[in-house]
Design goal:
The protein is of the alpha/beta class. The chain contains 5 helices and 11 strands. The protein has one domain (2-225): Purple Acid Phosphatase, chain A, domain 2. InterPro entries: Calcineurin-like_PHP (IPR004843), Metallophosphoesterase_sf (IPR051158), Pesterase_CT488 (IPR014578).
Length: 227
Amino acid sequence: MIYGIADLHLDYSKEKPMDIFGGKWINHEEKIFDNWIRLIKDEDLVLLPGDISWALRLEGAYNDLQRIDKLPGKKIILKGNHDYWWQGLKKLNGLNLKTIFFLQNNSYIYYNTAIVGTRGWIPKDSEDFDDQDKKIYFRELNRLQLSLESVKGNVDKIIAIMHYPPFNIDLTTNEFVSLMKEYNVEICLYGHLHSEGHRYAVEGNIEGIDFYCISSDYIDFIPKKIV
């Protein structure tokens, strides 16, 4: 089985309570871990597209990553906009975590299903989108292409994960979706949206791709079965 859940927002230091976003977030870590242990087996794959830990440095995030590493299943972790601890793959892989694969400019094959992705960025029709945003946006688009191109050989299915939704403010698809279509992506998962932001969630089959919003509060902190 393949599951997905984004925006764990773990905080081993207990200095960043998430209930400022509403009562739904009270004890959210316990909800996630309890549901995870109840649903997920060691042979399953869990896709985690960003905002994993509030830690600012890698040594701080290590405790949260260890907690994830000890949970059942294999995990694919992607960088989110709050993952300031994220380092290059050499440092991340040097942590020697046994069940975690870090996704950046690469891909992962699970039973002939390819997992690709990138963080993404704010949509170009955002009111405050500037030249710096444009630079990041197209860098992220290039990273998605590198991830897609890293898939070698024939696979049955391609799943793309992103942190930011691949949609404009007006909820139309953007260049990230165009690129996914070019490479025959079948499923796309994204997170980032919380509370009032849920109104920007777009789901269903659009232009031949099945989209799912898997922000943890959007799916009631229950990992969502995808495949």
